[in-house]
Amino acid sequence: MLVFVNSILYLYIFVIGIVVGSFLNVVIYRVPQEISVAKGRSFCPHCQALIKGYHNIPLFSYLWLRGKCADCGGPIAIRYPLVELFTGLLAILIFAVYGFSFAWLVVFVAGAILICITMIDFDTMTIPNGLVIALMAPALASFFIFPEVGLLTRVIGIVVISLPMLVLTLFVPDAFGGGDIKLMAVAGFMLGWGNTLLAAFIGILLGGAVAVVLLVKKTADKHMAFGPYLCIGIMTALLFGDIIIRWYLGLFGL
């Protein structure tokens, strides 16, 4: 009986996640084009036809329509159902860590914003200020949800990575984007300085690996979006930071 109840609860969390993921697709598409995310129904980017409600069911509609617009037959990018699926799985993962609580809500909201930042940065090589400001909401809420992360630790977290990034950018133009710096400042308050260092390390490790691949392939474009890798680091630190840090220190008997 308990297994059945847990299964229903996880399914419920997954449905919430994919529905939110459907909205995130709207944000990801509209914000760079400065289209309101609060007004107007979803539309096909090819023929501009309004998408009917029963054609806008997360995951299911993409499979039902076989990845094509119901009006013009234009292809629907696979990224749309993938964002929905990933958001649903992230909702489940956060639930597994924090249970059904305010902590789950705060971390899930942060994760949703980080997904938007990741996809938009991949698309445009920019991180919208509006999304960084939006991230301040869960960051401030985390102060009350996670009181074990002290105020001083959070204040140091604001500058421990963002300040060196800013200084480096002053000496090496375009070393980091302004959005990356602001992102790490907000994340620093949310995570505290220890987990902020971990988040940056993960981001640099992943971003560096991708940069090496691009250099080996000798691609014409020498620029790459760094924000997505920072977002992965931030989310990892938010979920498992303390566990990873304790494991690392344990290797040295600390």
TrEMBL record:
It is found in: Cell membrane. Its main location: membrane. Keywords: Cell membrane, Membrane, Transmembrane, Transmembrane helix. Residues 15-96 form the Prepilin peptidase A24 N-terminal domain. It is a multi-pass membrane protein. InterPro entries: Prepilin_IV_endopep_pep, Prepilin_pept_A24_N, Prepilin_peptidase/N-MTase. Residues 109-212 form the Prepilin type IV endopeptidase peptidase domain. Belongs to the peptidase A24 family. This is Prepilin peptidase.
